Amino acid sequence: MSPNFRASAGKRLQLLAALLLLATLCAALSAHFWFFELFSHFRPYYAMFGVLCVIGLGATRAWRWAAVAMLLALWNGYPIVRLLLQEFVPPTSVSRHVTVFHFNVGLHHEEPQRVGAFLRRRAKLVDVVVLLETSDRFAPVLDELKDVFPHQVRHLEDSPFGIALVSRFPLQGTVSREPSGAFPHIEAAAVMPERAEPLMIYAVHAPPPIAGDMAAARNLKFDYVARKAAAQPNATPIVVGDFNLTPWSPYFQKFIADSGLRDARMPRRFDNTWPVTFNNANLGIAIDHSFAHASLPLVKRDIGPDLGSDHLPVTVTFGY
After folding, report:
1. What is the DSSP string of 194-225?
2. Which three-class secondary structure state does DSSP give residue 230?
3. Considering only Cβ atoms within 10 Å of each terminal Cβ, which end of the chain, N or C, has fewer?
4. How does pLDDT run across 82-92, given as a tens digit for each residue?
5. Residue range 277-306: average pLDDT?
6. Dihedral (C-alpha) 222, 224, 226, 231: value to the nearest 10 degrees?
7. Taking CA 200 as the corner, what is the angle to CA 99 and CA 105, rounded to the nearest 5 degrees?
8. Which helix (DSSP H) or strand (DSSP E) does residue 25 occupy?
9. What residues pair up with 128 in beta bridges, in sequence order?
10. What are phi and psi of 85, to 5 degrees?
């Protein structure tokens, strides 16, 4: 390695390490200001680039910056390693399953029938379907699916906050705009075979945190749904949807603590669902989530396939 190349590469790597340091500091302050929270969602990438900086800076003999990069890689990588080291053991004491498919179809989806055809093919494998960003263009698809998903609660609108919840089993549900009155979600009780207590399913599309007021509205929605789920009488809660935040956000952990529900991610997988890029290369971040009461153990969770949206769908199966 020539001295000139080493010096040039070292400067670029030092700049990258400095940017990683700044992003990590912002992420550490994410609970204090909405803009800082945006930096919290990319911790796996900070850890990955931190490792690359350690290798590159070590090769260029920039030892102080290599040490900084090492600390950043360890700080950002620790929660990821903890997740990867978890062992998933499928439950053995369950006799029946409930499978929920949830999918942000994208407001301007060009082929609603493609989604409908996929759901019809999977009709015997899926019990409950939640579709987000559903406009009136999806009304014919939902009508055609009534023979396999006859029980439906719809709130279709030409905005990112249309929602449809359909089920093979009886539903009793409502559209709620609590707590702010602006952003709807669906709450529906589903009566399951051989289960005395119904499931209370919350289908949520939280506002994107693109400004301070939107971030506040998103967090108010989380607080409301968490309180409802924690105090749910005579029904077992499941919460699914597009949360517009990742597991690395402090508000994700707050939702789990406040609701008492379990995160249904599979260990050893990051389950990135948005955006769909590079022919579904699983880049991006995980913002579509599934939560359930402890009495509904996770059996499996699958991501995909690409159905024409900028999100990937999620299929999650719980036992009971």
Report:
1. T-SSPEEEEEEEPPP-SSHHHHHHHHHHHHHH
2. helix
3. N
4. 888 888 888 88
5. 89
6. 180
7. 55
8. helix 3-28
9. 100, 167
10. -85, -10
